[in-house]
Amino acid sequence: MSRSFRAETIKLVRRPASWLLLAITLALALIFTYLFPYASIAGGTDGPNNDRTLPMLLPDQLVGNSLGGLPVFLGSIVLILGVLTVGGEYGWATWKTVLTQGPSRLEVYAGKLLALTAAALAVVLAVFAVGAVASVLIAVAESQPVRWPGPGDLLVGIGAGWLIATMWAMLGAVLAVALRAVALPVGLGLVWMLAVQNLLAAIAAPLLDWVAQAQKGLPGPNAGSLVAALGAPGDTPGVAATVGGGQAAVVVAAYLIAFAVVGAVLLRRRDIG
Amino acid sequence: MNLPVQTEGLTKRYGGLTAVQDLHLTVRAGEVYGFLGPNGAGKTTTLRMLLGLVRPTAGTVRLLGRPPGAGRLTGVGALIEGPAFYPYLSGRDNLRVLARYAGVGADRVALVLDLVDLTDRAGDRYAGYSLGMKQRLGVAAALLKDPRLLILDEPTNGLDPAGMADMRTLIRRLGAGGCTVLVSSHLLGEVEQICDRVGVISRGRLIAEGTVAELRGTAGLRVLADPLDEAAARTRALVGDDRVRVVDGGLELAVAPERAAWLNAELVSAGLAVRELRPRERDLEQVFFDLIEKGTADVA
């Protein structure tokens, strides 16, 4: 499996789309978490869903600010990365090229999932790093003290972010295997994350109690609950304490494992076209 | 002795469509075996089943004596249904990635690139390769593991005439070097030139198997002599009624070509003017079409 992991890592690192997605992730995190709120505070403007104050942008809020995008927007990008990593083999018909070199399907798939797990960690670390730099710049610009979260809080935050990002990557992977393509899994994944989840939370759940209860078992609301428990701003889309942080972490981990297993079973059973 | 390729009762059905039916295929060590059939006959499906890409509905496959399972493709190289690589990587980097999966050293990459004459363009992105270059890279990938069994699906597709000739030379050289080669093709001339034995598949069934000479059947003689009627009567008297046919203004004789001199002397001594007398071999193309037609009729 280590051979497959190394091969998959090379492919992921050398693929321009991976870097583009990372750049978009960091740009979104920077713009929506720091730039727009700071511009609003500095300019004295106000708007809907904008109750952020200067202390919320400072380094001691790094964990919550870095995790806030993962339930929806940043998670969507990681999902796309998962689809590209697995679905690309269908799009380019390279499964046969890889598999005829001798590795088993599960070996290759495990290599892909490990590479995605490493990529998810890299994304989360990059978001934390960019957030750290941005928050320090704001603190310096506003003559505020630079205080960092404790190492334990940082580790827990990074771990939670890694867990959530990996779950979305696994969802992308399983969609790619199930649909044996790239475009459709990306489309369906984004519709689910950006539209369906929000519609359920904003429209259906307040009207129907069973939808509200069902939400507690869905991956998005649990990811949102987990980051909310770690201090993510409540005005961020997808961030809401629907369930407790501990339960949310367990549910997110369960989805991660389920997505990985279902993808592996499907890949193992089906013919490679 | 372990046969490089052995299938028993290999069958693949997609719903109501039977792509491959009860296929018993045997490829012997060191031979270049041609897998011949028209488009849609089941060649690629069979090769995919051999390599574990497609799961058989029934039957068994053994490659190099090994049943399906981990490590079954050790010593096996393959190019199936056209080359497929990562377009953002160069040809060399594509092979380096595949070498990781295969567990072979980077030195093999340079070697196989040289074998397929692609070293000069190995640093270019795969997306910019011509069809012929892609095909050669596909063969290079198949050779990465220094295979004892090489499975090539239409390896000359997309190659220009010089490239096709190079590919045939390479396959013959691999065969001469002890590598067993199973090559599928619908190009009869290609198969005729490089293969020791041939299997013909039609509508998912193996309808004939043997050397090219065996498939062609017994050779004979073609005679042009005047007057034709007298020549036919005399020849029938000499070799037997059932061995002589009048075809296109001449005689086709089912007799060994070695008897040409004797026959010529007999006809001349009988006062007949022999204008032409030459060995007659059945064209492989004719054999192929006859077999396909027969196979189709049998299935119907």
TrEMBL record, chain A:
Keywords: Membrane, Transmembrane, Transmembrane helix. The chain crosses the membrane at residues 68-92, 113-140, 160-179, 186-208, 248-267. It comes from the Bacteria. The keyword Transport does not apply. This is ABC transporter permease. It comes from Micromonospora solifontis.
From TrEMBL, chain B:
Coiled coil: none annotated. Residues 5-228 form the ABC transporter domain. InterPro entries: AAA+_ATPase, ABC_transporter-like_ATP-bd, ABC_transporter-like_CS, P-loop_NTPase. GO terms for molecular function: ATP binding. Keywords: ATP-binding, Nucleotide-binding, Transport. It comes from the Bacteria. The keyword Ribonucleoprotein does not apply. Belongs to the ABC transporter superfamily. This is ABC transporter ATP-binding protein.
